[in-house]
Design brief:
Largest sheet: 6 strands, parallel
Structural class: alpha/beta
Order of helices and strands: EHHEHEHEHHEEH
Oligomer: single chain
Number of strands: 6
Radius of gyration: 19 Å
CATH class: Alpha Beta
CATH superfamily: Decaprenyl diphosphate synthase-like
Distance between the termini: 46 Å
Strand content: 15-25%
Bound molecules: farnesyl diphosphate
CATH architecture: 3-Layer(aba) Sandwich
Strand order of the largest sheet: 3-4-2-1-5-6
Length: 251
């Protein structure tokens, strides 16, 4: 496994983010600029996903979450949805072996039951083959929406309270986190969005509370391992205060 990047010097491997979340935006614009069908942009974008997974695994990032398909994306033309579902299936099929070889576990967050049966079948198989891997978690947000996730969390907690298995007085932030799709995962330390839009777009609304946000104008198909490493360096230069005062002013 080689990502061919020479940009990793001055990166502190001991202080990498534990969890990086990515909004891969700009596939359509990348294709349009080249007078290609939007689907070609998604296909090129899938290549970028491979590169970023490789470099992340090499460096030792623990969790990588990609926003691959949002609840809102169901409103796209039927032909684009169909092409994307086919692409997810092909990617999972073709990467299963590499995931095994590199000790990568697959995770899925979102409303899986809305996905077509054949996509769910591939997901179920790869989840099963990779479930013992602990080198990195490759987490795909598929049919994912942050508000839907929060709504489902409220419903689950309400059912337990009504059934008497959860005392409402004991509900705290940990209870909420435990009832989200991301239970057991650390919150993202870093969120990267490509193609310049300054929005969160219903992605990990609860979990991004203290994440460092990076927006690059680069379109997702043009994003490279080198730019990813540069963002990690910039992340390491930021001071994360979590609402407290700066270390340098608190003495
Ligand atoms: C956003 O670009 C991208 C998507 C909705 C799909 C992303 C999917 C892939 C890159 C395929 C592989 C992914 C995985 C991880 C299985 P856009 O279409 O909104 O671009 P635009 O804003 O320029 O129109």
């Amino acid at each position: 496994m080689s990502s061919n990047t020479s940009n990793t010097h001055r990166l502190n491997i001991a202080e990498l983010p534990r969890h990086v979340a990515v909004i891969m935006d700009g596939n359509g614009r990348w294709a349009k600029k080249r007078l290609l069908n939007r689907v070609k942009g998604h296909e090129k974008g899938a290549e970028t996903v491979r590169q970023i997974v490789r470099i992340s695994r090499e460096m030792g990032i623990g969790v990588l979450t990609f926003f691959a398909f949002s609840t809102e994306n169901w409103q796209r033309p039927e032909s684009e949805i169909h092409a994307l579902m086919g692409l997810f299936k092909r990617l999972l099929n073709s990467e299963e072996r590499e995931m095994q070889e590199n000790n990568i576990r697959l995770g899925i967050i979102g409303q899986i039951d809305r996905l077509p049966e054949d996509v769910r079948a591939v997901i179920a198989r790869v989840l099963k083959t990779t479930r013992g891997n602990d080198g990195m978690l490759l987490n795909l947000a598929l049919s994912y929406g942050g508000r839907t996730e929060i709504t489902e969390m409220v419903r689950r907690i309400a059912f337990k309270s009504a059934a008497g298995t959860l005392n409402p007085d004991t509900i705290d932030e940990a209870t909420v986190a435990d009832h989200l799709y991301t239970r057991e995962l650390p919150d993202p330390d870093l969120m990267i969005r490509t193609s310049g839009e300054m929005r969160i777009s219903n992605f990990l609304l609860w979990q991004l509370a203290y994440a460092e946000l990076f927006v690059t104008p680069t379109l997702w198909p043009d994003f490279t391992a080198d730019e990813f490493v540069s963002i990690l360096k910039e992340y390491q230069n930021r001071e994360r205060r979590f609402g407290k005062v700066s270390k340098s002013t608190s003495d």
